[in-house]
């Protein structure tokens, strides 16, 4: 008995049908793991992301801030120390004057932008629910949160300046961890929650940085100014940073309230970051200012 040869398109159709009928349990473990990872990624970074900020610079994928951080660590621990071997330290005084003043101005701009967009002091104890609309105030708030993130990226260059000036003692684990972790936490804030309760750490940190960079600017004027006016202020700057972290940890429990609508990813990333930074700052303070 002979059989008529089937057209090629029927063969393809049958093959595809059979493939679709193969049970999921029989697929390779690697394929299933890839599918699960893709679904999990989309669930976090697509479904729950703020659609307004997705197209903004550096916001399309978590690989972008992670790449920045990896590049930062490579430069800090390998490239720049190797580059400075056998070289005299750079002075960079003019750059430091401009940089510190620019930081102070930028922090004032962020505080003004957030308060002008609706943030009020009572939101410290009464959570401000995020506005995800395209309302002008909501968009301006999100832009301020993104600008804060961009400022944290720029602050990575401070470590580069320390190395170029051969101030290696200032490139401490506290300094490197603080800068790297803050970049990623700020990115997560823009990605998932650019407004609402995320305004609190941004405003507090901006106030602290106004004090800190004003101190740095005055310090850059010369050793005479440092010895005469700034020596007693130096430990106070660290105390202010510690107080900031304590305030954030005291306020953190309200983020778990459903009415505040803070994404879990932001809570479980930033709260441990606050705790680790607090421990590192306390250890730094004890070593630097409590010596007998």
UniProtKB/TrEMBL annotation:
Domain of life of the organism encoding this protein: Eukaryota
Main location per the UniProt record: membrane
Keyword Iron: no
Record's keyword terms, sorted: Fatty acid biosynthesis, Fatty acid metabolism, Lipid biosynthesis, Lipid metabolism, Membrane, Transferase, Transmembrane, Transmembrane helix
GO cellular component: endoplasmic reticulum membrane
Entry-linked InterPro entries: ELO_fam
Pfam families linked: ELO
Reaction equations catalysed: a very-long-chain acyl-CoA + malonyl-CoA + H(+) = a very-long-chain 3-oxoacyl-CoA + CO2 + CoA
GO molecular function: fatty acid elongase activity
Subcellular location: Membrane
Bilayer-crossing regions: 63-80, 92-114, 145-164, 176-193, 199-216, 236-253, 265-286
Keyword flag rRNA processing: no
EC annotation from Swiss-Prot or TrEMBL: 2.3.1.199
Gene Ontology BP term (one): fatty acid elongation, polyunsaturated fatty acid
Membrane-topology descriptor: Multi-pass membrane protein
Family: Belongs to the ELO family.
Protein name, per record: Elongation of very long chain fatty acids protein
Source organism (scientific name): Photinus pyralis (Common eastern firefly)
